[in-house]
Specification:
Length: 139
């Protein structure tokens, strides 16, 4: 007996590839994410950011967004609506990724003792304390 499938596997794969390429392009255009070096990972567990003096482990993060595009935009090949859809999706995901990046950077900085509390300090004294905690290399 022949099984009829209404799945559009090749279409789904092509759309996933297109969305990834578009997101990479938006990330490259983002002033923060464009400077982040990426490494492919082959696990779905924790990543150790800091071992000493305090341990900081981070989990792989899932980001999601609710965006809508009406079927009519596809039927009519409305490129503008498709671009709006992709832009909204990418913008939402990039926003979440940037927020998570800064949260991880703060946790990492705090764990190694590089956070300076400006509360009640003279601005210049706090800045000197920051410079003392910053590791710098000169060539």
């Amino acid at each position: 007996m022949t099984i009829i499938s209404f799945a559009l596997t090749e279409y789904d794969v092509a759309m996933t590839r297109l969305l990834r390429e578009i997101q990479k392009g938006f990330e490259k255009a983002d002033p923060v994410l464009s400077d982040v070096q990426r490494f492919p990972v082959a696990h779905d567990g924790k990543t150790r950011q800091v071992s000493t003096p305090n341990i900081v482990d981070t989990n792989m993060q899932d980001f999601s967004a609710d965006v809508t595009i009406h079927a009519d935009a596809f039927r009519r090949t409305n490129v503008e609506k498709f671009v709006e859809f992709i832009w909204g999706l990418s913008e939402a995901l990039i926003s979440q990724a940037t927020k998570y990046l800064f949260e991880t950077a703060f946790r990492t900085s705090e764990a190694v003792g590089n956070v300076v509390d400006f509360g009640g300090k003279n601005f210049w004294d706090a800045q000197i304390e920051m410079l003392e905690k910053t590791e710098m290399h000169f060539r």
